[in-house]
Amino acid sequence: MIEFETNPSPSFNLDVKSPLHNAFERKAIVLDLREGAIIFHPDQKQDSLYFVKSGVLRSLVNRGDTELTRWFYSAGDLAFSALCFLHGAPSDICLEAACPSVIMQIYREDYNALCNDFPEFKKIVNDLQTAFLSRYSLHNDSVKMLSRIERYRKFLAEFPTVNHRVKVMHLASFLGMSPDTLSRIRRQFKDESSKNNPTAPSNCG
């Protein structure tokens, strides 16, 4: 079996007593999103960074009549279009709330001001961006090299809070399989869990 190393990812979690936290809170715009709300459309130039406080954001692209899920961002993650924010090019992604979510939005000028006042903030953001690009590359490799069930197992390890908070069709697209195949794999995992721990309460997500 091919194994992909899973490293702990950095998380956006500022010390609430720090001056940086207070400055960030003053500049951030709180977005309280319902499921399906879109905060970023294709062909826009991204002028903000989005920090997920709770819930799940989904990045997606449309290829003709096909919608593809590229990534899921959960609490502590930074959601952004690398092509857009880092290089100023129009993005091809859409950012959508996959479930009710709370997002902290920081405009580019406020991001630059925070970086000037707090050099550690720039390092935090750079670490989050680097971690995402690394995870994204590894995910693309895993879709090509791992079996479907191995992909799902890897997903459970790396996205522990996402599984039952997003639609099956969106998760199946992310994992490179059909919704029916994903549902079958989920049942298999549930059956295995029940056999291994018959006294555990049922978790219907």
UniProtKB/TrEMBL annotation:
Residues 33-116 form the Cyclic nucleotide-binding domain. It comes from the Bacteria. This is CRP-like cAMP-binding protein. It comes from Dyadobacter arcticus.
